[in-house]
Protein 1
Amino acid sequence: MTGIWIAVGIAVVLVIVIIAIYNAIINRANAVERAWANVITQERQKNKIIPHLEDVVKDYKEFEQGTLTKVTELRSALQGLDSGKVDTAKLEQAEAKTGELLKSLNVTVENYPELKASETYQKLMREITDQQENIGAAIRIFNQNVEDFNNGIEVFPNSLVNAMLNRKEKIKTFSDSQAEEGFEYKPNI
Amino acid sequence: MLYYKNNKALISLLNTIKSKVSLSRSREELDAVISELKSFPGGHQFKTKVYWAIFTGLLLATTVFGYWDWSQRQYFQQSTWIIIAIGGLLTVLAGITAYYPHHLMSKVSHALLQRDGLLDNNLRSVSFNGKATAHRFQQRFSEFHRGNYSREIKELFKGSYQGEEYSFDYHYYHFHYVDERIVTETYTDSNGRVRTRARREYDYYDRYGLILPFGLLRNFVVIGFNLPGAGKATYKPASNRFNKVFKVIAASEIEAAKAMKPTVVVAFEELSNVLSKINFEVNDEADLCLSFADKDLIATPKKVKISEFDAFIEALEGEQEFEKLRAALSHVHYVMTKLDSNF
């Protein structure tokens, strides 16, 4: 009789452990999704900045030609982002288009000293820098959560529970040195 | 006549410096003390080999004599006890005589470097009443609602920070508080009956922090260590790492989400690698109290002593940087710039 109770006890503990691991994997997957949505929200903030950018450069015809093409490309890349589905390739594309636009802006503005010195342009550039920093930080948070999730499905016995019940796959972290450079706060000593 | 001439003069100099350092409030006053140290005509090292030799000799002689006497009779006579007591007393005296100069040297060296470090980092001591100041802080911040027995501010310094975008004055404090608890214990009395009795026990704690005008938020708290009276979190950022250490309480979820931008969240994660048990509390007057458990924010990082004279003077003449203090202040400045960037 005691043996049966011991077996029942072990089975109950095992079920509790499996439920705890199952739920932890779900929680980590949700945290990755939330962090991803956060990255996309930050990326889409660029849509608010773009009209201001167009306003600023509209009086500079030559400037407008090159910049507008880059703006259109960036807009299209931003539209391709889906906050519900983790797709680091599309994020990489949007970041690359942002990089190209900023590079083009920096090169072309050299020909327009009064534009470069104007308060509106300076303010806009500060806003873009701040936005890029937030994107860099959001990506860092996303990568940390992905690392937690991947560890959570790969370590034993989580790997067994995942293979039998959750069936989640490892997620790739986002790697873009340009985006990471955007976030420069490093107070570690 | 206990010490050699140079030792005696050096002890006298160190005692003078000790009292002058504790009274010095400005760079000029400290420089005058350093000049006095530099102009000392004798050597800056104690010669204590003889005292250590006497101490060792007395210790050995007393031990050997005691052992020899015991091996003769297996007990100590009264006269032996007297000799051992006198031997022991002389050994202790010799030990203190040999140890005291080095202890004084360490103490004064540390005091000088500490004062120099405070001045290098623009920190000035503030005169204050410990209990009254704790009470005043308690009325302003939940952080000071600790200690059911006593609360006291032990140290208070005023400093100023010059950032790229913001400059602000701040106070650095050391808060000491005591919790009293009643412990019930059982014991057996002289009649063999088991009884219980209550005993008061005291737990002593210390917290440290910075208080400054913040201005960009009101009633906003990021809690990394139990904050008395704090309710449930109003907002959880997306970061697992942040949520493991902190919880955010604000007037509304929208206000919290607006403040906790990704850059601010990551800045807090980074700060938790530098400081422990952090609370970031902005009160209804928009003043910030950044509190933590680390006691080494304003501790001199230099370990050199006056006896290594050239290295010691070099350490005093160089700039000392309180790195943890800098990290805490740059965090505050960074958060200010991020919260203020609403274009």
Note: Chain B has two domains: 5-120, 124-178+204-339.
Protein 2
Amino acid sequence: MMLPRRSTILGGVALAAGSAAPARAQLTIDMTRPTFEPVPIAIVDFAGDRVGADIAGVVRNDLQNSGLFRSIPPSAFIQQNVDANAPPRFADWRGVGAAGLVVGQVQQAGGNIKVDFRLWDVVVGQQATGLSFNSQPNNWRRLAHIIADAIYKRVTGEEGYFDTRVAYVSETGPLSARVKRIAIMDQDGANNRYITDGRTIALTPRFSPTLQEIVYMAYAEDRSPPRVYLQNVDSGRRELLGNFPGMSFAPRFSPDGAKVVMSISAEGQSDIYEMDVRGRALRRLTNTPAIDTSPCYSNDGSQIVFNSDRGGSQQLYVMGAGGGGERRISFGEGRYATPVWSPRGDYIAFTKITGGSFGIGVMRTDGSGERMLASGFLVEGPTWAPNGRVLMFFRQQPNSGSRAGSVTLNQIDITGRFERPVPTPTDASDPAWSPLIPQ
Amino acid sequence: MRMIKAFAAVVAMIVMAACSSEQQAAAPATTTVTPGSVADFRQNVGDRVFFDTDMSNIREDGRQTLNRQAEWLKKYTNYPITIEGHCDERGTREYNLALGERRATAVKNVLVALGIPANRVSTISYGKERPAVVGSTEAAWAQNRRGVTTVN
């Protein structure tokens, strides 16, 4: 498709590190520390082509929205016309309070574009990282996200998450006849497109690991029970994932994409099943009179976390991926729901309902160390960024009289420090964060 | 035919208005409707029962409604029956889909126990997706935690 080719720009540019810089900011951040200041960073419009300013704009937006960086406004810059291939005037950049400086250039190369960038450590006066890409011109947004990921990684030591997409449910119309369509957009809200037509309610989209397919639940046009569908994102071709007499719902791919775990209802009982995507073999994993639903595989695929009311109230349980060995892991006050295993394997995020309020929290995978990150009238449905350090969820405001409250996607880091709304063209719920787009 | 449909819509609006005031399982009314019609079922029998928070057991008021429903359904046997299970907005989406299914099944089981053939009754859960009353108050939620017997 579009595969940007990348190569590293070695720090071939000699430089004279100036006198020891005032150590008020550093080009490094430990995001697990309880407090820190965002890293001040200056991102210069990339030289050489009009799209260079657009690229710089996307990089600024990505880094600023992470909460870990403070993008210094270009109007404050002292040095103008920075040469992308020579050391900058570090004193000028220290003068505007920058710890890091990003410069780059765009060159036309036989129908493709070649994009170079360097991240300068202004504090120590050295190149911190640099990369070069060859790609199709219409691919510039992805290049910008990949550049932002490289900067994020160099500064935080964590993998970035900007070159990703988000699937969600677009909501329009009155609540009594709400139209709910699956949409997919880039992580920053660009390139929004609709995947279902809205004629029936579609809910809970989830990506396959390649991003080429999604699974979701949708109602039928007649009054047959809603069922789980598998849909190719690009071709739009969709197929029913098993035609059961009862409702099937709450689907989620295994980390290798070979299986989908979901709930199937019969006689008021909802149990968890695993389906082989290729052969469509079905295997029952739970069998209790209770509601067993919202299953999610562990990052290594060996376990499944789910919620069940088998003990009287909705709580989180973990079992082996083939079923069995079920054990409860949530023991706090309230009801626990929608567990999602971090792609790093260290935490499980969940929705918690206590009294009249909803919260989003994380706990270790054995249920210990519970920490609440966000709360409100209704917050629900956390989903992990691929680096396991940022979550997205949805926030619904109370209805005011007969007026529907707004429903928005929100992003928060796992320290709970930075929460920000994620822009969508319509009201939005049920976010699903994709893995990094394969390069 | 067109006349009857329009009339049914008016009756449905009256029933909805009655529901939004306070918990009323059925509103026996004096308006004349054709016996055996959908409007007759909704208006004179009562098409819905209500549930307590996170519960799916049929309450006493609901049991009376279902008794009337069963009598009516045994008299007018040509209608296919679909029972919708619904929840209020105070639960998570997937759990509420399952809870709505459980509520619909609870209604179905009572009707079957009262003599309605099981193969005449299907169920569908709408979870929290289709509130009858829009509002974020306990009164609205109480109206939305419901099982609705539909006969068309």
Note: The first helix of chain B runs from residue 2 to 21.
Protein 3
Amino acid sequence: MRYLPLTEQDRREMLAVIGAKSVDELFRDVPQSARLPGKIAGLPDHQGELEVERAFQAFAAKNISPSAAPSFIGAGAYRHHVPSTVDYMIQRGEFLTSYTPYQPEITQGTLQYLFEFQTQITLLTGMEVANASMYDGSTGTSEAVLMANRVTRRHKALISGGLHPHYRRIIETTARWEGFSAVIGKADVEGLEDLIGSIDKETSCVVVQNPSFFGHVRDFTKLAAACHAAGALLIVVVTEVVSLGLLMPPGEMGADIVVCEGQSIGNGLGFGGPYVGLFATREKYMRQMPGRLVGETVDADGKRGFVLTLSTREQHIRREKATSNICTNAGLCALAFTVHLTLLGESGFRRLSELNHAKASELADRVSAVPGVQLVNESFFNEFTVRLPKPAAPVVEALAARRILGGLPVSRLIPDDPPVGNLLLLAATETATEHGMAPLVSALKEVL
Amino acid sequence: MVQSLDHSQGRSQGRADAPATAGSSVPVTFTGNRALQIEEPLIFEMGQPGRCGVDLPEPPKVRDRLNGLRRNGEIGLPGLSEPQVVQHYTRLSQKNYAIDMGVYPLGSCTMKHNPRINEKVARFAGIGDLHPLQPVSTVQGALELIDSLAHWLKTLTGMPAVAMSPAAGAHGEMCGMMAIAAALEAKGERAKRRIVLAPESAHGTNPATAAALGFTVKPIPANGKGRVDLTALKSALGPEVAAIMLTNPNTCGLFESEIIEISKAVHEAGAYFYCDGANFNAIVGRVRPGDLGIDCMHINLHKTFSTPHGGGGPGAGPVVLSAALAPYAPYPWIVKQGDAWTVAEDGAKVDGKPLGRLKAFHGQMGMFTRALAYIMSHGADGLKQAAEDAVLSANYVMAALKDVMTPAFEGPCMHEALFDDSFLKDTGVSTLDFAKAMIDEGYHPMTMYFPLVVHGAMLIEPTESQAKEDLDLFIAAMRSLTERAKSGTAAEDFKAAPRYSPRRRLDETLAARKPILRWRPSNSPPGGDPIRQAAE
């Protein structure tokens, strides 16, 4: 087996040093009844690279790749172009095959890029501090609610109907099993929801998304003020981080915690993961944050260096009193994010953002010109909702039969709400082209 | 010249609030570099307006539909060209130790070889570029792939069901413990069973998870052989106990030899058995945890099945479930209906009562792909051989060092060898000093000070990936270090280690006392930024 360096001769010599007759002797603490007589039955034996590659080509052949079909699906995961440098860099063995940087003397590479990453996140979000990543935006949002509960010592979270339905479900699940109350708003299709009236003295936080799941762009400055007046925190979620190149950052609106899904920068769609959660807050809440933090310090020679810090918040030190049980996070996806954002820089990131908005504007104009299709949004960034004259799910299936990935029927994620049945969510990024938009529009005309 | 100024005067000097100590005796270079060790500034100190590492087309002018919320002012991101970006991250990469470089004996972390075929197949078009919410009819191969991995995981563990969505081991723990809470709720016992038992040697994630779910954590002592004290466990069990969380093989690198008695006692008391599967790599292919009577176990795909650790993730933590817990597995469920795969998402009718949802979409697909490629490459025969080689290598290291270091417990061990620090007694050298001296020898240190139950613990996990010659050199280096430590004259030397790494010991107290968690123009060292000054 190509991955195993020990030869039969090595194994014999090693057993002799140990003083054991066979490897079986080393497993003698396993109860007799649980010892298998040989290898596990019913599973194939080892295979060469060629055979393994073929097996995965066979899996791939049964899917429609968005690279080979017009694709307009967003809903929390966006198809962007990732520069070749990014994928090359994250496959360097020194990054790929290193562990969490517990020995800072020989992991300055990881620690420095995470420090740079943290700084980039604060700049994008307009916040003061950021951690070294969460699993993804969805789990990060749930951690933000738990953090707000800790900070305010309250246990009621108000969840906007404009938050991604999966994110809402995760908060609901966490609330159910960890014991707090989550008041979930009705699906906010029109983007007119007003949560200010629902805030009370029990409210720990209000969770909103910008742009919302349905694409609306909103100003939460007044909501932030209302939260603060009532002693609650405002959590702003961004599932399309590219929007921050063009939109007022949540920090400027008064957000206390900002959580983003960072997939759009540097990370492929990957059928849903792994992605990278971005988590930022105000300095005064720094010690209540979940996850790892990298800080600057000096070494014994007085040279600048970086270390994991404030770890007294974490499970390996605090155990049952930790701020979160999170351990492994999304280090390599954070590297992909930071390399891509460094390539983009100020001017590239802004231009990318403009391009996304322009493409989505074009798509919105073209699709809403199709008879029977009505654009729901007055505002959007690169994703918007349209109302079709019939249920959206079969329309999307009919488009798929024509090899067009024509958006998300909202009913897939909100199945129990009949009024959303005809809604279709469409996204366009810089990857959208005339060769994609034209077939979508003509297929829609046929199908509707 | 500006580049030289930068390194010699500015960026390597350190924090403004930290006094620079006397350096080592090595002569100082003009640049601050030492051959291949190149000092590297932060991207924020390198950027120039007008530089960019991508070429994007001019966006067409459109009417803003941003609700008047256009961002004002600069974001503050630095501008770098592509070659600068490549050089920056390449230089940073060279400041890291990695599995690709050599022995990485970090106990409990399983730093085994990461095959590149896994990276390749994960990037195939039609796998790596799929949108998670494409119509199910267009992702049949992806769903089949997930089910194939699920089949392997169920068969290897001897368990009937698996929840695939958890994003990492700790997330898997959360999933498993929520499933236990759900099962208790269904029996009307959630309110009365509030205690979770965990050995003192447990990973910190175990008590953190249980406490987050509102359970009270009660520690179970170990016996003199480094295993759970069965008598103490039995007396702790009762009608208030919800579950035990136990790692097996345990964090001392030992198989819990009374595990069947433990699971019997736990079940007789009406509680559930959560097994922390962090060390599954020691027994995969040889022992099925299902035969030991467990109710659930997370599998760290980044440990046992070699998906890359990536400097701290991403991981994946699927959880295998017993028949008693399977109905509570969270959404989504991947189900076969006739010839077609479907995804049962929130609210869909399934044969059970899902506990909710833990993660957006369907889990860490990229990790599933890599783990499945690893598993298929090994096959049933190779996985068993890998576990045996891992155990053999750990016992070999233990046997070759036991006369100069002090094993914490009588052998044999499983996949990792645990030593305490009594061999360092009166030498003036601590476990930390010893670990830092290993760095100068070209090794990543072993895990230190964990598990907490062993004084000055040193946990060595060589894995199956090292050739015998490399293990022999490692052993010889360790023996030489013990000799130096015991010579009575080298304590100062050890305290000064490491000397040859890109940075020497870092001041962690300063980092925590006055946290600097981001770059600001004002944290630059005294004298400001020489590049900017030179440019001005």
Note: Chain A touches chain B through 214 residues (CB under 8 Å).
